[in-house]
Amino acid sequence: TSLDPTATLTAPTMALNSGQISVQLNIPGALNPTVGLVLSGQALASLQNSANDLSLLSYSSFDVYGNGTVGSRNLDRLAIQAGAIRGFNTGGGTATFSARDLLLENTTGRTVAALPVNPLNGKLAFDANQITLGANALQVERFATVEMAADTRLLTTGTGSFSTTGALDLITPLVTGAGASRHSLASAGALRLIRPAGAASTMSAGGLGADLPMQGSTLEANSDVLLPSGRLTLRATTGALSVGNLAPTRIDLAGVSRGFLDVTRDTDGGTVNLEADAGSIAIGANATIDVSA
Question: Does 258 have pLDDT greater than 80?
Fold first, then answer.
C-alpha cells in the first residue's frame, strides 16, 4: 500500500485497510521496513481534519512512531483494528488517539508475533467519551504505560482480550460489559482503575452475564465496575490487590428484575473473585461489593 505523505484525503467517512499500518507522528525516527500503509504528513493531517468517522484496520500490526496526537473530540468515531499496537521511537513522550467514541479490537482475529524484549518507553493514551473494547485479542507492546481515559464508561463487548507489556491505567467512572461478553484486561505491570476527579457513574450497565477478568502485577480498583449477574475476577500476580483504598468504589454484580410480557423475573447475583498470588488483599472503607440476587 502506497500513500504519498503530501496527498490530501477528504471525506466525512473514511475506512483504510492494509496488511500493516504505520503512523508517523512528531520526531518519528527511522521507519521499519514495511509494504503496508504509512500515514504521515499532509495525508494524516487532512484525514483528521475532514473525517467524522475514521476506521483504520491492519491485518497485522498498527505501529506508532514518535509522539503527538491523532484525532480530537471533534471526531465522532475512531476505530483502531489490529492484532497488536506497537510503539517505536517515542522518546519518553505520549502518543494520543482521541475521538468521542473510540473502538479498539482485532477484527480479523489474526495474531502478531511479539517483538523482541526491549526497554519500555513512553505512553500510549486513548481519550474519548466512551471507549469500547471489541472482538479478539489485542496486545500493546513497547509502551511503558497505556492510559485509557473515558468520560462516561469503558465497555467490553464480544469475546476478546486487551493486554499490555507495560502498566495500564483505566481512568473512567464506570467499567461495564455488554450482555454475555467474555473479555479480559491484563497488564504485565501495574493495573489501576481510577475514578476521574469529581466524576460519578451516570451510564447504565451494558447487559447481563458479562465475564471480566482483570489482572496486573499489582491491582488497584478505585472506580465503579457494574456487571449485573456477571463474573468479575481481580487478580494481582506479584503484589497487592486493593479495592476502594483511594476513592469511592462500587463493585456491583447484583441480580436485576426483568419483565417478560406480563411476568417479572429476578436474575441471580453474580460472582466476584479477589486474588493476590504473592501479596495482600485490602478492601477499603470506600468500597462496596454487591453480589445479591
Answer: no
Q: Tell me, what's the pLDDT at 206?
A: 85
Does position 72 have pLDDT exceeding 80, yes or no? yes
Q: What is the percent of the chain where pLDDT is above 70?
A: 99
Q: Residue by residue, what is the 3-state secondary structure of the chain?
A: CCCCCCCCCCCCEEEEEECCEEEECECCCCCCCCCCEEECHHHHHHHHHHCCEEEEEECCEEEEECEEEEECCCCCEEEEECCEEEEECCCCCEEEEEEEEEEEECCCCCCCCCCCCCCCCCEEEEEEEEEEECCEEEEEECCCEEEEEEEEEEEECCEEEEEECCEEEEECCEEEECCCCEEEEEECCCEEEECCCCCCCCCCCCCCCCEEEEEECCEEEECEEECCCCEEEEEECCCCEEECCCCCEEEECCCCEEEECCEEEECCCCEEEEEECCCCEEECCCEEEECCC
Across the chain, mean pLDDT equals: 95
Hey, what amino acid is at 235?
A: R
Amino acid letter for position 59: Y
Which pTM value belongs to this model?
Answer: 0.96
For 243, left (φ over 0), alpha (ψ -120 to 50), or beta? Answer: beta
Nearest partner of 37 among 63, 10, 6, 72, judged by Cα = 63
Cβ(125)–Cβ(97) below 8 Å: yes
Angle at 45 between CA 42 and CA 48, to 5 degrees: 150
Query: What CA–CA distance (Å, rounded) separates 212 from 219?
Result: 14
Name the CA radius of gyration of the chain, rounded: 20
